[in-house]
Amino acid sequence: MAEALAILGGVAASVQLIETTVKAASELYNTFRSLETAERDSQREITLLDEVRATLAQVSGYILSVHGTHELETTPDLSLLSQHVQTLCTELKEVKDLVPTDVKTNYRARIKWASRRKIFDERIRNIEGQKLLLVLSLQTLSR
Predict the structure, then answer these.
(1) Spatial contact of 81 and 137, defined as CB atoms under 8 Å apart
(2) Does pTM surpass 0.85?
(3) Whether pLDDT at 27 is above 70
(4) Which of 67, 92, 110, 131 could staple 38 via S-S, CB 3.0–4.6 A?
(5) 39, 103 in Cβ contact below 8 A?
């Protein structure tokens, strides 16, 4: 009976070792893959952030043009929209600062990008939430 338990324990330990090895190999693969695609990913993210920033500039222009004909205090929806735009612009600038621009020539920048990717993804989710607030404010304003 003790022999069977010892064999079972050995098998369980082997399975656990294999599982840990596979997880470590997967993490290494993902890390090297991130390093390989860092240039393309960072350029895509910068382009996307620039497009969002351009859209926000248009919305800001609209707010300023409406503000010229109305008092901001008398249009609380416009004031709220303005606050959402400012918050989103600030968040976009902070996120853009996370994306290295010299990924093509600097291997250390690739490593930094790969390590910051999770933080970047979290910040993008925050931006999506801010964008939703902006859309809701625009819908409220358009009624």
Answers:
(1) yes
(2) no
(3) yes
(4) 110
(5) yes
